[in-house]
Write a structure and sequence with these properties.
The protein is an alpha+beta fold. Helices cover 52% and strands 19% of the residues. The chain folds into two domains: 81 residues, Arc Repressor Mutant, subunit A (Orthogonal Bundle), CATH 1.10.10; 172 residues, GAF domain (Beta-Lactamase, 2-Layer Sandwich), CATH 3.30.450. It is built from nine helices and eight strands. α5 runs antiparallel to α8, α6 packs across α7 and α8 runs antiparallel to α9. The protein is elongated.
């Protein structure tokens, strides 16, 4: 490829990167941003911002208000709606669930709430001969098990126990619904922080114990955060909870080492 064409291609990619930086500078809580705020968040010169903003406005990806501030344009809503309509939940979740099952060695389920019960929407079985048996379509209670309690908690159920689950970002249940079965569940969110369901790692209590939870908490957080990102949700609270859990484990390890 001639040098001139290579330079032009690289310049074109850089322009796209800068335009995307402008669009992604907007956070969920923002309604509109000034040029100075966009410059601070993107690191771009105001002259560059003005030039790119003009092109984004032309394509309705950005809009300029009468007071000079900028907000996301109507084309972003249209693209988001097209993405949501084309999205198959299983296409997003099942590859991530298979990764999680391979990494943890245990079965993975995705539960959704249906009024006063929960339904197993997707399932990936472990390779163990002895495992927790749930099939897609099975209906389970909400009031017991990590999956049910997590659905209640992240759907806004009041009470100290549910508040703790929301703070931790996950729910653990050891032999609560069935004596010989334990599980670990986390939420998956979609657009506008809508709870789409919970991902659950579950198996016999002889394998899914406290040590298992500690070993697999990070991979479950990663799975839930990636699923949330793919479904148009905000994964930052999950990632913050993951960091907090890692800090808590490190603190416990340090305390143990000092005894």
């Amino acid at each position: 490829m001639p040098v001139e064409k290579t330079i032009r291609k690289e310049e074109g990619v850089a322009v796209i990167d800068r335009a995307c930086a402008i669009l992604f500078a907007f956070k969920p809580e923002d309604t509109a941003l000034t040029l100075a705020e966009l410059a601070a968040r993107t690191g771009l010169y105001k002259s560059t911002l003005l030039r790119l903003a003009g092109a984004l406005i032309q394509h309705r990806l950005l809009a300029r208000l009468d007071d000079g501030r900028y907000q996301l344009g109507p084309a972003t809503f249209m693209l988001g709606a097209l993405y949501q309509r084309s999205l198959n939940l299983g296409d997003v979740l099942l590859p991530l669930m298979r990764e999680l099952a391979d990494a943890s060695g245990e079965s993975v389920s995705f539960y959704v709430r249906d009024n006063a019960v929960r339904v197993c929407l997707h399932r990936v079985d472990s390779k163990h001969a002895v495992r927790y048996h749930v099939r897609e379509g099975d209906v389970l209670p909400l009031e017991s098990g990590s999956g049910g309690l997590a659905l209640l908690a992240f759907d806004g159920e009041p009470g100290p126990a549910f508040e703790r689950i929301r703070t931790d970002g996950y729910c653990v249940s050891m032999g609560e619904r069935e004596r010989e079965t334990s599980g670990l569940s986390m939420p998956v969110f979609g657009v506008r922080d809508t709870l789409r369901g919970v991902i659950t790692l579950a198996g016999p209590s002889s394998r899914v114990d406290r040590a298992f939870v500690v070993r697999n908490l990070d991979v479950l957080f990663d799975c839930a955060a990636r699923a949330t990102d793919a479904l148009g949700g905000d994964s930052r609270p999950l990632r913050a909870a993951r960091r907090a859990a890692a800090g808590e484990r490190a603190g416990k390890d340090a305390d143990g080492g000092n005894r």
